[in-house]
């Protein structure tokens, strides 16, 4: 298995909730962030920078209950509703080609 596959496998066993994330680009971004933070608990992630990850869906991101900021510039995301379960969160996004969204939770 590749290093990425080993990291995903390890996270699935340590935190099954990461399995809810179907988009491979988003999942890899979360795994990379968790590895950099030396954690196996996705709820401890407060900031996520997922620029240029070819992400199409944010489905399952609700497992990041500690998330307060996310950057998803230069991806293919059209539906931000999965972020509704995380509040408040600051979102920065430029979907392909030019949609820009910046908002904060209530």
Verbal overview:
This protein is an alpha/beta fold and about 110 residues long. The protein has helices at about 5-15, 25-35, and strands spanning about 45-50, 70, 90-95, 100-105. The longest helix is centred in the first third of the chain and has 13 residues, at about 25-35. The N and C termini lie far apart (about 45 Å).
The total of beta strands comes to 4
Query: Can you tell me the overall shape?
Result: globular
Order of adjacent strands in the largest pleated sheet: 1-2-3-4
- Figure out the total of helices: 2
What oligomeric state best describes the polypeptide chains here?
Answer: single chain
Helix content: 10-25%
Poorly predicted regions are 11-16, 96-106
Rg (CA only): 13 Å
Spell the H/E element sequence. HHEEEE
Going by helix content, strand content and strand pairing, the class is: alpha/beta
N-to-C span: 43 Å
Largest sheet: 4 strands, mixed
Proportion of beta-strand residues: 15-25%
Q: Mean pLDDT score, rounded?
A: 77
In short:
The chain has 106 residues and is α/β, with parallel strands linked by helices. The protein contains 2 helices and 4 strands. It has helices at residues 3-14, 24-36; strands at residues 47-49, 69-71, 90-95, 99-103.
